[in-house]
Every structure is written in structure tokens, then in C-alpha cells.
Amino acid sequence: MRNQQRWLLLLLRHHSLSQPHISRHVINQSQFQVNPSLRSITSSTFQSRASHMIPYQPLTIRKFSTCELPVEHKDSDQISLLTHIFSKQNRTNDEINLDLKSNNVTITYDLVIKALRSFNTAPDEARRFFNWVSENDSERLSSKVYNYMLGILGSNGFVEEFWGMVEIMKSKGYGVSRVTFNRAIERFEKDNLSGDVKKLKELYGCSELADVNSSDEVCSRVCKLIRGNVWGDDVEKELRELNVEFSSELISMVLEKLECEANKGLIFFRWIEESGLFKHDERTFNAMVRVLGREESSEKFWKLVDEMRTAGFEMERETYIRVLDNFVKRKMIKDAVDLYEFAMVGINKPSSQDCTFLLKKIVVSKELDLYLFSKVLRVFTESGNSLTGANLDAILKSLTSVDRFGECNKILKAMEDAGFTPSHIQHSKIAFNLGSGGKDKESNEFMNYIESSGTTPKSKTWTSLIEGYCEAGDLAKASDAFEMMVEKEGPSHAGYALELLVSLHCRKRRAIHAFKLVEKMVNEKELCVWHTTYKLLVGKLLAQRGFEEALKVLHLMRSQDYPPFLDPFIKYLSKTGSADDALAFTAAVTVKKFPSTSVFLNLFEAYFKAGRRSEAQDFLAICPRYIRNHADVLNLFCSMKPQKATATIPAAA
């Protein structure tokens, strides 16, 4: 009983006075499988111990980030990349490293295992990959990795290399696993390699099918023992009687197998060092941290993380990625930010893409936590990094995805405090999105923010805001913004914005209001209206019964040295216009004393083509004399007279 109580308290052991996170690591004893008779004892002991814990205060050194997950590719993507990279022959180490870096591939222990599995029928790629890992990342080469490579060599008939690797494994104390033995023996027997079959069986001694001392086998026995029993003297005794050497690799394997029973894994982790069987190193600490990082309760995790750093060990990149993934999946964003802060003061710092990843996750959370957002920015910049436009673009895209773009002003303020200033192009994008999203209040705040930051909003920013309002169909807001733009920026760059506004007026069948706006801007502000705007306005006025206003547009065009826009008038008059309308039109396009003869001819031809001969005659009657007597006009009317039928009289018989 005392022994069971002691192992439970191993979970709370040392560092209680030196670790500021200990109040975060309260253990729920109900999670452990303990003898019912001990529950009252362990509970009272635990409460007594917990009452002496030091309240949590942030570490002064803890300044504790991925584009979906720290921009690590999915496993399948990474395997495809590795297959492509290592399928090429005669490549230098530098070339391979450059390829891996440019494709954002991080070599982890799990990835090594998965890659070798995928190389099962591609021994050349497997050898190149294994040799590269051996030279550049040899700590990833465990007994399990060697066995995978050995199995590939054996099953593909590379006998000489197979035995060479067996010797290397012997020198490292690694055994051959049952799976590897079966794969190799099957190929040897198929190829009638009786000598190699005999040699392989002798390797096991008396033809045993498995090496009882292989790491895999020992790991399985240790895990079976721990899982199947309540922790106590009997379990400790049986573990000692296994008579195995507990290596860093073996302990990591055991902890990985116990990841679904994290509390038992933590008991084993504490016991193995307390018993003197092993002194924990960086690898075993990281293995235990990865296991605890799967739990929803992070108290034990943070205690162990601080303990690991106090012991002088670093968090591996692989550990960071796994734990961050778990935190994000469980919506434990605060813990994810703390993990980022922790990792940023270590040797294996997260990348700049990890920062973006974390910021995106914060802004799409149920509620925007500006404290956490600012904390990530502070940690990132205090480590010597600078925020870029790409960071802002990614964050704004995430805000849009959850329909919370209106909160961009808070984001901009936080990034400004971190030393970032958006570009004018980004200002324009933000203005458009606010306008098109109907965020009137936020739009005003945004424009005021730009002014308060010492930067006058550019005409492009105003135009983008107006374009956004027009996209949303908000004529009143677009008009107000246009008036403000002209007032603050002047009319010199307002041509496109005016065209947007005219187009919106016309879509709402308010072409006459659009004309009044254009007339006001030309006469009062001397705004140079675009030619395309005039053309648009003329066509819409004629379609919306604004013939008189359309004629006035011709006068405005002439005042700004634009040629008259005739086609829509001729089309309109030929179908619905009266003779008086036609005469008013010819007067409007008169350049000097007399209008052009070609204008009259075009009108007459259009009348005839539309079948309106009588209207053409009426118009001709009120035309100036020089038009009525013009040869081309007379010829046109004569050619259009109806032909009288000529009677044919048959000849007399």
C-alpha cells in the first residue's frame, strides 16, 4: 500500500519549489487505477501536498507557428516529396538539403518510418534516403528504423548488404525483429539461398523465430506488464526481473506505446529514474512530453516541460509540432500560444510560418482574444523577426473565412503596436472588404485609423471603399464616401470613383440623378470625367427617358474636348424620337454655325431603316434649307419613294 501511494506521488515529485508552473499541474487521482482501499489515503496526501504548492506566476525567461500545421505538409504530401527527391541519382548532400528546405520538409522519426514503409519496393530510393538520414540526422536511426531498412534489403534480394547491416546492428546492440526475419527468410527461400537461410536461423539460435532481446520485443513485454496490472510492488519487481538494459530508445518506445494511458506512462517515467535504472535524457523527456501533450488537461504537461528545460534539455521540433497539433485540435489556443512562447526561447525555434499559423488559429477562434494575438506578435518580434504583408494577408483571409472581417481594425492596431505598417495596396483591399461587407462603422474607424497613424488615405483607398459600397449596392454610403474623397483629396483622381457611382445610380434606374451628380462635379469641382463615363451615362439616360439630360451630356463632353457620342442618339430617335427631338439633337452636336450634313444623313437613313418614312418627312420639313436642298439628301429620299406598279398590256392577236 505504501508503495502504491509512493508511486502516485511520483507524479508530483520534485521541482514543486523551483517550478513556477506547479499550480497548473494538479493531478486528478481518479484517473489512476489504484486499489480502492488506498483512495482515502492518496486523496488526503494529495490535498496536503497540493496545499503547499506555489501559485503560478509567469517565468521571466518564458517568452514562449505553420501554415496548416506549421506549414508542414500532410504525411502523404511529404512522402511524395521524399520519393521525388530521393529518386534522383548522384546528388550531393547540399542539393538534397536545399530540396528539403525549399519544400518545407522536416525529417522526424515518424516520417523516417513512414518513408521507409513507402520505399518497400524501391530499394534504391530507400538506400539513398537511409544513408542521407545516417549522415545528417543519425539520432532518428533506432532499432525499428534499422529493422525496416533491413527488411527492405532482405525482401528485395540484396543479400550482401543485408548481412552488412546485420553486423552494424549487432555493434549497436540491436536485434532482428520477427517481421524482418519473416520478410528476409521468405525471399532467401524463394531464391534457394540455403546457406543464407541457415545463417539467418542460426542468428536466432536454434531456429527461434524472434530475438527476445530486440527492442520491439522488450517494449511489448514492458507495455503488457504495465497495462495489465495495478502499479505496485509486484509490477516493479517484474520490471526489474526482465533483466533488460533500459536505453533511451527503449524507454521512448514504451512511452509511445502507452500514449493512450498517459498517467501510467508518467508513473513509469518517474519510476525508471527514481529506481536508478535510467537517468532521463533529452530523448526520453521529449517522448514523455509528446504523450502528455495529447491530454486535454495541460497541468502535468507544463510541469514536465519546465522540468525538462531546468534539466538543460530542449524541445525537439517533432515534439513541438505534435503537441501544437493536439492543442489546436482541442481548441486549447492559450496552451498553443504558451507552447510557441516556450519554443521561441529554445534552440529549435519555430519558423516565421508557425507564427502566421498560430495567428490564423487565434482569429478564427470562437472569440478573438487580442491578448493572445498580441502575445504571439510580441514573442515573434522580440526574437528579431519582422512582420510582413504576407502575415497580414493570411490573417485577413482567415477573418473573412469566419465572416469577422469587421474586426480587422483591432488586428491592425495590434500589428501596428508590433511595428508593422500596412502598404497602400493592403489599405485598399481592407477598405473594399469593409465597404462590400456593409461594415459602415468599421469603415469609418478604418479611415480614421489611417489618418491617426500619420498617413493620409490615398485616393486609391477611397476609391476602393467606394467600390466596396457599390459592390454592396449601398448608394447612400458610396455617395457620402465620394463626397468625402473629393473634399479631402480633390477631384484630380476621382474619375474612376465617379464612374462607379454613376454605374450604381444607373443600375438602380436613377440615371437622371447620376447626370446631376456629373454636372455638379464638372461645373463646381472641375472634375475631369472619363470618356467611358459619359458614354455609359448617355446610353442609360436614353434608356430611362432622360433625352433632355442626355443632350446636356453632349454639351459637357464638348466642354472637356471629347467628341460627341452619336450612335445611341440616332438609334433612339429612329425608333421613338419625334421630329422636334431630332432637330434638338442636331443642334446639340453643332460644332460651329451649322451642324454636319452627315449627321442628318445618318438620321434619315436610320428613320427609313426603322420603317418610319413619315417621321423622316416631318423631320426634313423643319430642317435648315441647305439640308432640304442638299443633293445627297434629295437622292436618299428619291431612292426611298415607293415604286408604282407598271401594268403590262398583252399584244393584240
TrEMBL record:
PPR repeats lie at residues 281-315, 458-492. GO terms for biological process: RNA splicing. Keywords: Repeat. Coiled coil: none annotated. Pfam families: PPR, PPR_1. PANTHER family: OS01G0970900 PROTEIN (PTHR47003), SMALL RIBOSOMAL SUBUNIT PROTEIN MS81 (RPPR8) (PTHR47003:SF3). This is Pentatricopeptide repeat-containing protein. It comes from Anisodus acutangulus.
